[in-house]
Amino acid sequence: MKAATAAVRYEKVGQYDQAALFWRRAEKVALISVNQAWASLRAEVCEKRHVLLMVPAGR
Can you say whether the dihedral through the CA atoms of 56, 44, 14, 10 is positive or negative? Predict the structure, then answer.
């Protein structure tokens, strides 16, 4: 739960690289498969957002 809470905080402020890291941690410690799947999905979204933010404008 602590990892997911931290991930949400990072996501809200746009620190998607950190959010993805904490979502991956949450995925590893989740006890229920639906929570693992949710954390995995959120990590993927944050990883993609981070990459998109790194691409210079106009490319």
Answer: negative
Helix (H, G, I), strand (E, B) or coil at 57: coil
Nearest Cα neighbor of 48 from 16, 25, 24 is 16
**pTM of the full structure:** 0.89
23 Cβ contact list (under 8 Å, min separation 6): 3, 4, 7, 39, 40, 42, 43, 46
Give the model confidence (pLDDT) of 3-56 as tens digits.
Answer: 999 999 999 999 999 999 999 999 999 999 999 999 999 999 999 999 998 877
